[in-house]
Amino acid sequence: MQHSTPQSPTAKTQPVQVVITNPGSIEPPSAWMQYGTSPTEIILATAIVIGAIAGVISSIALLLQVLVPVMKGNPSRGRK
């Protein structure tokens, strides 16, 4: 048994207008990447710079641990 809804002869269809609005001042992500102002990119670059500075500081500290005893005339390893 099929159920169908009867259509009234007076029913009319009306056109609907779709309005698309511009969101305004939001920049597309491609602009952030083009100009290097993406928040993620800035955070990543900052982390890389901090890591590089830490690497240089630790390298200088290790170099001083080796050079200071040699400059004082007390090498940490005896020669045979």
Based on the model shown, name its key terms:
rod-shaped; 2 helices; mainly alpha; 80 residues
Give me the strand/helix succession.
HH
| Strands, total number | 0
Mean pLDDT: 76
> Number of helix segments?
2
The major sheet is characterized as: none
Helix/sheet category: mainly alpha
Share of residues in strands: under 5%
Uncertain spans: none
**What is the gyration radius calculated from CA atoms?**
36 Å
In one word, what is the shape? rod-shaped
Walk me through this protein's architecture.
It is rod-shaped and about 110 Å long. By secondary structure, it is mainly alpha-helical. The N and C termini lie far apart (106 Å). The chain has a domain at 45-72. It has two helices and no strands.
In short:
It is built from two helices and no strands. It has 80 residues and is mostly helical.
Draw up the topology in text:
Elements: H1 29-35, H2 39-72
